[in-house]
Description:
five-stranded mixed beta sheet, mainly beta, four-stranded antiparallel beta sheet
Amino acid sequence: xxxxxxxxxxxxxxxxxxxxxxxxxxxxxxxxxxxxxxxxxxxxxxxxxxxxxxxxxxxxxxxxxxxxxxxxxxxxxxxxxxxxxxxxxxxxxxxxxxxxxxxxxxxxxxxxxxxxxxxxxxxxxxxxxxxxxxxxxxxxxxxxxxxxxxxxxxxxxxxxxxxxxxxxxxxxxxxxxxxxxxxxxxxxxxxxxxxxxxxxxxxxxxxxxxxxxxxxxxxxxxxxxxxxxxxxxxxxxxxxxxxxxxxxxxxxxxxxxxxxxxxxxxxxxxxxxxxxxxxxxxxxxxxxxxxxxxxxxxxxxxxxxxxxxxxxxxxxxxxxxxxxxxxxxxxxxxxxxxxxxxxxxxxxxxxxxxxxxxxxxxxxxxxxxxxxxxxxxxxxxxxxxxxxxxxxxxxxxxxxxxxxxxxxxxxxxxxxxxxxx
Length: 421
């Protein structure tokens, strides 16, 4: 089955009738779809747009309001949002796991975790930081959640620990470790891609530095000193380069930093950046950057109301898209061309505001493998009723009453174990 690359651009509308999101086909650079925002002229918050390609849905949070909207990405679908969810607060960051099972939102100093298939609010991990959370990242295997805050701290959590924190009377999720090194608020965090063996985390801060961390050990591998405040970053899929977007209007450049294959890196100063590392062209601060699927093209959005397409090898600007308002978010994803075998899209349910109790849960957590380093089991959601699933192959249906009873018994033992601890 062939697949084509898509570029999704989110711009702040000036009037309620303006287009909020535009999707381009990167092969012919034609507009594939367009979507409008809510009835107001408010745009989508930076870093608060999530795309679910398998479910063919888009999630976006209205800037400055506790509202999350859902759009259908089906061809010929409605332009307006198909549903609206009222949350308990203003969302500062939004992420979905790569398996599209969970949606994670940061509200003030807390993390909210929803099960996408049912809309149930599984957990609220409160008071994780001293100051509001500014950025989120999820590991490629969907097992770890990284939260960065204005207090200059980065915390790494197990997603399983966050979900089971509802059984803790203190309602406090225990982090795996805290990454300390930045001295000012953190603006962006990104995890290494899935097809690479290294578990690295990249962070950018207003202290004019970019750091690379080892997620397995919690250690700082390298620190890059910058000449301006970084706003956003993107990682090459081969984990060979990191691209850093500047937030100051006087610079307007994207810096390319080459990562060496060694396991440890000495501190590197990038104060006097050479011209062969810079992508120049924007006239205002850069808000978002993404790398193409094959890592040959770089996309950047800016406050100058443009999206630029760069050739990574030569740093030349291939194309410029002009918009009527500043660009807040861009996403790059693949789309299957052959739709003959695609299933009918199911509309996403409304997201709940109340944490679901263990008695009401219709989703069971089944251990699928063991993380020997942290000595804990990793769990995946499995819906028991009305569909039974094989424990060894969670995604394949298996009609068996015995399996249903075993899963129910394991589910009860699991929550009894954590309620006593």
